[in-house]
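Annex B.
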Amino acid sequence: MTGKTNNTFVINDVINDLIDADKSLINPLMKLNYFGRITKNKELTEYTLNEIKGYSADSTLPDYRQIGSRLYVDFQAGYHSHPNKELPIAGLDEDIQEFCRYIPVFESIREIENMSSKLSEKDSNYELKFPIPLQLLPRIQPYAIKLYRSTARMQLTGARLVGNSSKMLGIIETVRTNLLAFSMEIAEQFGYEIELNTYNQERETNNKTILQYMTTNNITTSGDGNIINTGDKAKIDAKINITKGSKDELVKYLQENGVSEEDTAELVEIIDAEEPNPDNKTFGKKVSEWTKKMLGKAVDGGWNVSIGAAGSLLAEAIGKYYGF
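AbiTii domain-containing protein: predicted structure tokens.
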């Protein structure tokens, strides 16, 4: 970054990076992250850091990182497999509809740029796919069976969200356009070379102005730290380190993420009472019923975790315990 002194932030450098469509968004994001840190602007620092490093699994994503999707299911009817059948989400429970409406894009902007470059080389019909957590299948199965009737017993074996890969390009274009408009407004307000000492003399007031520009240009999301959930134990660690067969590690992980002692004790009692299916990576009936109960608590507010995060957390944690 160039500037007259170390106490000057040259917003024009950011603007020049943004107007060159061939340049990566990493440079302007890094410069704005620096500006956010040096001015102690929490919202700008967190937003730019999320775009640089990628969003956590329980973040509230900006609208442009949610790609419209369609739901496809696989089911078994007797001896016959029926893969990739589209299932309209309108007939599902409201909370499941909300979960299935969009494919979330948590990846860093660098990863999105790389993915977009590769996707543009593929067939134009190439699609994005996002697997539905296995423990949500019991919530989807009744509607699927009703829609695809069969004289044989039907069992849902898998589900996924499918979206248009070209929307990945739209994420890059949206971030670039919004950041450019935001940077131009900053420049008009504070000048193209911002004297940081002067800015920080009225930092609180100036940061409120920055936040207003961020909101106007759709480059911030609501919530404290962009986390969906509330409460001391609401944040979900995406890295799950549970040794196969270790109940202590499983219990510790679940309780750290807001599952009550009573609910974890119930799981401990039943988890070894039946064999899972390692080939299909499905749990036994009792464990599945327990996870359904927990998802219900996520829906009605009894567990401060979004249903999407809850489904992934339970499936991955119990799967790790079983060694899937």
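Residues 222-238 have pLDDT under 50 and may be disordered. The radius of gyration is 23 Å. Further annotation is deferred to the next reporting cycle.
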